[in-house]
Design a protein that fits this description.
Layout (H helix, E strand, L loop, with lengths): L1 E3 L7 E3 L4 E6 L3 H4 L4 H4 L5 H4 L2 H14 L2 E7 L10 H4 L11 E2 L2 E2 L21 E5 L10 H7 L4 E7 L1 H14 L3 E10 L3 H12 L7 E3 L1 H7 L1
Parallel strand pairs: 3-4, 3-8, 4-7, 8-9, 9-10
Antiparallel strand pairs: 1-2, 5-6
The protein binds dicarbonimidic diamide (C5J).
Amino acid sequence: MTSIACAKPAPFTFDARTTALVLIDMQRDFIEPGGFGEALGNDVSLLAGIVPTVARLLAHARAAGWQVVHTRESHAPDLSDCPPAKRLRGTPNARIGDAGPMGRILIRGEPGNDIVEALAPLEGELVIDKPGKGAFYATRLGEELAQRGVTHLVFAGVTTEVCVQTSMREANDRGFECLLVEEATASYIPAFRDATLSMIHSQGGIVGWTATLDALLEAV
Ligand code: C5J
C-alpha cells in the first residue's frame, strides 16, 4: 500500500495492483496548433505546457505496473454519435466534423484525433474513444476496469473543468476512489482549473482527492 500523506483533503492510500492511471484527452486536437482548441480561439500552449509533466506521471505508472487508460474525445465519421446539441455549439467555423489542418475535427482516425506523440499509448494499454465529455458515458470503460479489479483511479489530462472533472465525477459515482494530479491537468482558462481543484477536494473530498506530482512520486 502507498499513502500520499499531503494529498488534499486527507491522505490518499492506494495499492498499485488495483490502481489505474486515466489520461483524459491528451489529443493533438486540443493541444497542438491547428486543432479544435485553437480553432475555438484558445491558447493551446497552456495545455501543451503540461505534456512533460504528464509524461513523467505516465513513465511512473508504467514502471509501477498500474493499468494505463488513455481517452480520446471522438466521434464516428458519420457523426451518428454526435447529437446536434453538441455539434452546433461552439464557433460556426469550427464544428465537430468540419475539415481542419489536422483532418476532420474530433473524428476517429483523423490525425488531430491522435494522442500527442510524447504520450502515445503502448500495446496493452486501454484506449477509450468517448463521444461525451465523461469517460464512462457510452463507452466500455466501466466494464474494462471492473474486469481488471481496478478500484483506484489517478487522473490527469485536459481540460480540467470539462472532460477531466466530468470523468472524475462519473467515476466517483461508480464507487472509484479518485485522485487528480494537480500539475498534470490544465485548462484554456487557468482560473477554471484552480476552481475545479478546489471543488474536488472541498467538503471532505466530495469528488475525490488532489495531490502534486512530487508528492505522489515521493510517496511511491
Ligand atoms: C472539451 C475536453 N473541453 N477534453 N473537451 O471540449 O475537455
